[in-house]
Fold these 2 entries.
Entry 1:
Amino acid sequence: MVSVEHYLILSGILFAIGVIGVLTRRNAIIVFMCIELMLNAVNLSFVAFARHFNDMSGHIFVFMIMTVAAAEAAVGLAIILAIFRNRETVDVDEINIMKW
Amino acid sequence: MQSFNIVVYVFAAIIVASAALVAFSRNLVYSAFALLFTFFGVAGIYVMLSADFLAAVQLLIYVGGILVLIIFAVMLTHRISDVEISNQSLRPAQGALILIGIMAVLLGVIFKTQWSLEGQLEYQATTALIGDLLLKKYLLPFEIVSVLLLAALMGAAVIVRKEVRGEQSGGKS
């Protein structure tokens, strides 16, 4: 039986990889994928806790997070496509039209 | 139980390796395909954690929906004829510092906490239990999140459609 710490460490590693990807990458789509990695890491720890405490509420939370992730994917990629049509780039350094 | 542990650690290794490839690969298409393996690995861990329904939902939503959307976005936002689909990174030293900080905090909390309830749990089918909770205890969040999803999908359609008007019909996500 793998104890809950191991699942949490896996989740922590996955979350940290997602954070570093968001912070260091310049392509907006990579940033987007790394946000999905972070959401998956949180889902993983929710399911590990649900198993550990034998409580089904964690599964419901994961369900909700997946729904929000799907909504975020639709809106986020639509925004990226709209920016690409206007600016011909998805580089987050060059998308500085709202910066002063 | 020995083989169980081995399977879990194999899934964990797949997840970590492919997630690192997602975050650090120079090629955008490689990142998208590595994300596929990450999602499969997480679904495998869900199965080992007795969350069979969530594993199926993970495959359906993430692999069947979100990943396909991402690959569409990769194809629509890059001229495929360009050989170099590069993905430069920016200030990796500061990023590594932040990574170490986050890992230190997370590992500190994980090892410091006493995880007392260590019992043998049996495997059970979770679909009926999830349905029961969704329609009784969590009915209001369920309805709210469904309205949110509808609004987000309509908003996405509006955002993408507005730019297409006037020119020839481009792609849509």
Entry 2:
Amino acid sequence: MNGFFLAAASFNQYRHNLDNRLALFTQGILIFFLMTFSLTSASIQDYLRGNLEALLGSDLVISRYQPLSLQQRKELKSHVNTVSETRILPISLTYQKAWERVQLKLVDQYYPVQGTLQKSLSVGGVTESSQIAPAIGEIWVDTRVAARLNVSVGDKIKIANTELYISAYLTHEPDRLMEGHTVDMRALVSAASFTGEALPAEGMQYRYLISVDAKGRAKVSNWVQAAIPDAKLLDRHKGQHPLASYWVRVENFFGLSSVLLFFMATIAMNMAGRRQLERQKQRLALYCSMGIPLSQGIRLAFFEWLISFIAVFIPALLLAYGAQYLLIQELQLQFTDITAGVHVDVVLKTSLLAWLLLICMQLPVFIQLKNASVISLIRQQPRKSFALWQLLWGFLTLSILTAIYSDNWLLTSLMLLTMGSTLALMMFVTWFFFALAIRWGRKRTGILPFSFFIMQQRLFSKSTQILGLGLCTALLLFTLMLMKDIGVAMHSQARAQNGNLIITDARNNQLQAIKEWAQNTDSEIRDMRPYTRAMVIKINDIFLDEYTTQPSEVRARLERPIRLSWSDGIPANNRVTSGMWWQKGDKNWQQLSVEEEVMTDLGLSFNDVVTFDLGGKQYQFTIVASHAFKPGNSSITYWFQIPKVALRHLNASVHHMGSMEVPETAWPELGKLLQTYPTLAVTSLQEITQRFDRTLAIVTKATVGFSAIILLLSIIVIVASISGFENEDKKRNGLLRSMGMKLTDCLKLCCYEWLVTGIITATGAVAGTWIAGQLIYDSQFKLSYQPNYLWITAALVINCALVCVVGLHFCRDSFKASVRELLAE
Amino acid sequence: MSKSVVKNSIELDSISHFFKSGDKKIHLFKDLSLSFEMGKTTAIVGPSGSGKSSLLTLAAGLEEPKSGAVYCRHGSKLLTTDELRNQSGFIFQHFHLLPELSALSNLALPLRLRGDTNFHEKSLKWLNHLGLQQRADHKPSQLSGGEQQRIAIARAFITQPNYIFADEPTGNLDKVTSEIISDLMFNCTKETGCGVILVTHSSQLAERADDCYRLVNGKLEHAS
């Protein structure tokens, strides 16, 4: 206990020290970030759990893209109390010349199974509960649909030649959760309003809401697995919220971000810890001279570190609670019932994680403390620098952490490769530069050759400073560049689509009508590519759910039918990245090319067999090639592509995706086309732009916050790495003054030194950013990396200037070193 | 040197030591034997680079000799290096006070590290003994070199060790201050009865020791 108090006293004495403050500040930022993220995440998880209980609208939901057969319905009904079939069809709802894309929900007489519907008779008016769905011939629409179509209660609209009377505004469905928290507009109608084949079965999603007891749940679960493996089963009692896997991916992304922050923090603490370590070693040596065993000294150092952890942990935790409250308030705009919580268990778990991460960073310091010896107080000991090892240790431990956190192996590997190459490049440039500089300055006199000589003398510590600064600047530049470029790309992509109307789904029989409509309205069809809907069922005969459990963008998308396209040759906007694309006339129709990122995310390799479900039949394809998007042509590309000849063997209905340029005068005519073909799915460019802008606003908010933390850590790294050399610089300047040199000479020397540091650092950082751009842009963000040379030059100059200015600013004290001070020392 | 067997002593038995400078081996001394008794002061003198400080570090058990052995006897018991270190104190040429601690805290530090709850009273008593009670709250930077070394000496003696190893204790001080420091050190030695092994360039200081040896060209000569 005495040791603990002694460590506390020691912590108190050193807490005002700049190095100590920087290290504490860095620790604080990290703990704050982790805590805020974990607390917010826990509140969201709580919300999702509660949400699932309240909003599933039944005990079980079976969801699939084809209806159950009569036999299957019979089997299902034998296990359950009530079952209600709902169908969801995305259609274009039209009224006069206005049109709007909606999710039309067709329900039967058993709907709703649990809970009540909420409707109102006027926009913003009193809501009423209802246990029954709209009557035959009636429709309830979302108030947003009403506003867009300019309709109100009492109006009549037509869907597939069936006239429907708007009897209420739909405000809430008990199975609302199944709609997710999408912005899709909705309309509710009784399925019996439509006769026979009035609505197409294609593209329809079927949901079976089931009321059943615990025993029956297990039976249904087994039955679904055996009889309808392509179906998705959601159990209210098992907490499988549809947003849960999405949230896992968000968590993973932030996990990766926090690992980046930890990278920066390792560098910052490494820099700040340089002098601290020397001081600690001296203190330990003194303790040893007082007869205290080294192990006890290290224990004291550990206690001191522990106290520093606690000292920053408490304010960071309080701030994190505050931040959680603010974030949840922001989220309440989207999810009204979400509330901030205390989450003791989460706090404990995160504290342990933060503690383990920070102790990992501290471990090399404790190891080096083992070298403390009384001899160092008697005579000068050769100083072994572990700074580089420390940096590499940080790199290694955080690489492992990144690998654990990340759900995107390709991105993780590329990020690590970028960091590794940047480090190697900077090392090479540093050593190469000094080798040349020393050769050049060997027979020369003056301040410049002397400054090279001095820098070479402390090459090792200088290298660590350069590597730390360079890596940190590279990360900062990359974050800023990516943020800027994604923003620009989102804007330009949204605005530079090939046409101003995107056709996302046009059936074969609609194609002729579209062509005629285009001709009549002076519109121009720019692009049209065929596809069929297919569900990925198995990979190498293993069900997809079992094949991969890691959540990812790709995995989430495969929950729904994908677009399977065909082509003889390689499409103009694709390039084959590996494998062999099939030849025209090749008789083997079961060949498949998979997009590169999909291959990586699912861990696929050549000769893997993918089983697709097309209209209830299963087909197997063998992967023979991998393709990637090639910018410059059409923006429509597909993840899965097969030879055209395969079409003869498939039971496939052909759909098309494309774009049109519609003149201003033709827009009012679009309603007519959509009224005739309600399943024709089109989106105007304006809508895409608005959607992008909304997404961009969220992305910008998140990235600005993240960049602010990165920037803060960068400043810490710069200050720490510079202040770490203050004493050495002071001593050197004092010595130079004692040799009759002027103050301006010392200033010059300092300028040269920081200029060299700045140039190498900036070169490394810009090169690192370039490597990251080359490796990551295309493969991860579908952006072609086109370095802006003006931007690069500006980044180089600003970086150089910043390092020089900050360097000189922090060195200003070293100019005050007088010969008298040196003598006194 | 003849090997004497005493009750409490540190014995250097035929020790040799060298260090490497690049590929070269620089020998400091060979087959050197010497005994330091508790209760006696022993001074080692010699030119710079003769290996005096290395001899001190070997005797203190901070380093292992390249050949030979160092024994520390306490009665019939042979002490381990750790046990010897636990019973030792050091005085350095550069004082090595902790700059963040006050004079009193520096003095109290070894007691606190050993868990002595009376550290405050004991260190105050020593401070009075040194005549530095007015300086209790002063940081090392606010003390003169002599005052700092007096604190450092008291810090070495405050735990009543069996041996004190002093490396050029007056090396950084003027003549008058050196005498004050010498008086303090020798008085403390008498009062506590510990053994002092002293490495110095100062002949005045060496003369006051019970035994004095000169280390020249790797050989040890009795100088008094």
